[in-house]
Amino acid sequence: MSKNIIYYPVTAIVALILSFQHVTVAAVTIATAFLLGIIFFKKIRIIVALLLIVFILFFLRAEWTEHTNVSTFKGDESILHGIIHDGPYRDGNQVQLELKSNRDEKIAVTLFLDEYKDTFSLANFSPGVQCTLEGKMIRPSPPNNFYAFHYADYLKYKYIHWTFEVSSMDDIHCNENKTRHIFYIIKKWRHDGIQWIDTTFPSSLKGIAAALIFGERHLLDADTESHYQKLGLIHLLAVSGLHVGLISTTIYYGLIRLGLTREVSEWVLVFMLPVYILTAGAAPSVIRASSVLLIFLLWRKTGLARCDPFSVLAFFIMFLLFLHPYYIFHVGFQLSFLISGSLLLSWPLLKSKRKREASLLVTFIAQIAALPVVLYHFYEFSFLSFILNLLFIPFISFFCITFHFPLIYCVIDFSPYIYNTNCTV
Fold it and tell me: Which residue, of 11, 167, 169, 219, has the fewest CB within 10 Å?
């Protein structure tokens, strides 16, 4: 591993933060320092020049993102036309969904249900369905208290600038015309699977099942989620590298047991992983784990020398941030890459230890790496999390995921008659 690799993603991250925080003076100062380094330090001139290029590219990328991330709506619109992009998700008498308007801009829609029978009509709503809505456009307001959840920024980082309130089911009209785009077909499978869990599972289990299988927490009880968070176990309910690794291993060796060759099994994983990213919600942690595994599999096909895992991770961070600069504010992105990078950097120490000692060290390193992010975002940390992770990670990994993985095949049913399909696990 080249000791200089880490400087590149760090430089990219600093450039993005300075741009988004509008600290132009500091950005100019850092760029000037790079230029002076190129002039006066001949031995590292190439490295400093590359760092300067990275800094300028990511700074300009963030500036362009902020410049183009604006709304085309005025706020006085009362009728919207578009395609359901995500959802719907019901919480009591409120339904949340994302609508992609005909202007190619996403809107966060809140629908209020008048009667219980309206919940049955939601079965006709799913990603890819074209709808016309009547309601009121509302600009999200900033929080009244400092350090409170900033809903407007949360939506902005998802390229959403307006919420749209629909007072009743009579004000939303959807037709049978569904887009045939592969993106919405996969999201429709995911939505049907979540709805199947919601209608089939006991109320105490459906939230955890949806989180483990689809990375979806809308069904999770607020108190349960709070308890997991306070105990430092909330990451168990997020689809991450642990889930991707176990599921990929299960599929890979399962296909081999069925008589397929290793070559064919690997190609199955190559085509399956992009679909799994969308099925599991396309969170940064899922993208990271699945994409790195996909890169590894494709690299093996080339027959080239083995690549350094940390270098792949570092450049993939830069690739993701260049495509989606707002990921820098995503808690899952921060935790996923910080913990993964810390474990890869600690590999020389871990490989010299026995399995039990290595397991303890992995948990300890992960906890220490996550501590700054957890304290910054949640203002609390559980000292029990170290012990609890040692107990619950093996349980979740080898029982809840591995032995119940066939459930996924029942939930993601390619048949249009998913709700009439009986599955036994």
Answer: 167
Which residues contact residue 19 at a Cβ distance below 8 angstroms, ignoring those fewer than 6 apart? 27, 58, 59, 62, 63, 66
Domain count, the chain: 3
Across 225-237, average pLDDT: 71
Residue 210's identity, in one-letter code, is A
Amino acid at the residue 341: G
Does 391 lie in the same domain as 264? Answer: yes
pTM, two decimals, is 0.80
Burial code (b: 16+ CB inside 10 Å, e: under 16) for 21-45 equals eeeeeebeebeeebeebbeeeeeee
- As a whole number of angstroms, the distance between CA 110 and CA 212 comes to 26
Q: How far apart are CA 330 and CA 383, in angstroms?
A: 24
Q: Are residues 256 and 123 in the same domain?
A: no
If one compares 80 and 425, the residue with the highest pLDDT of the two is 80
Q: Are strands 94-101 and 79-91 parallel, antiparallel or unpaired?
A: antiparallel
* Domain annotation covers residue 423: no
Do 55 and 164 belong together in one domain?
Answer: no
Same-domain check for residues 213 and 315:
yes
Considering the domain architecture, whether residues 13 and 107 belong to the same structural domain is answered as: no
C-alpha dihedral sign at 314, 320, 323, 324: negative
Q: Please indicate, yes or no, if residue 425 is contained in any of the structural domains.
A: no
For the segment 213-242, the average pLDDT, to the nearest whole number, is 72
Gap between the Cα atoms of 206 and 423, Å rounded: 16
**Does 354 share its domain with 326?**
yes
Instruction: State the average pLDDT over residues 255-279.
Output: 83
Q: In this structure, are residues 8 and 51 in contact, taking their beta carbons and an 8 Å threshold?
A: yes
Has residue 187 been placed in a domain? no
Q: 89-103, 105-119, 237-251: lowest mean pLDDT where? A: 237-251
pLDDT for 400: 58
Same domain, 222 and 163: no
Statement to judge: residues 369 and 238 lie in one domain? yes
Average pLDDT on 61-70 reads 90
Pairing, β 136-138 against β 94-101? unpaired
Reported as a single tens digit per residue, the pLDDT across 356-405 is 777 778 778 888 888 888 888 777 777 777 777 777 666 665 555 555 55
Host domain of residue 42? 7-68
Residues 322 and 17 sit within 8 Å (Cβ to Cβ): no
pLDDT at 322: 93
SS3 percent helix, strand, coil of the chain, rounded to 5, is 60, 10, 25
CA pair distance 386, 143, nearest whole angstrom: 34
The alpha helices in 132-202, defined as continuous H runs, are 151-156, 182-200
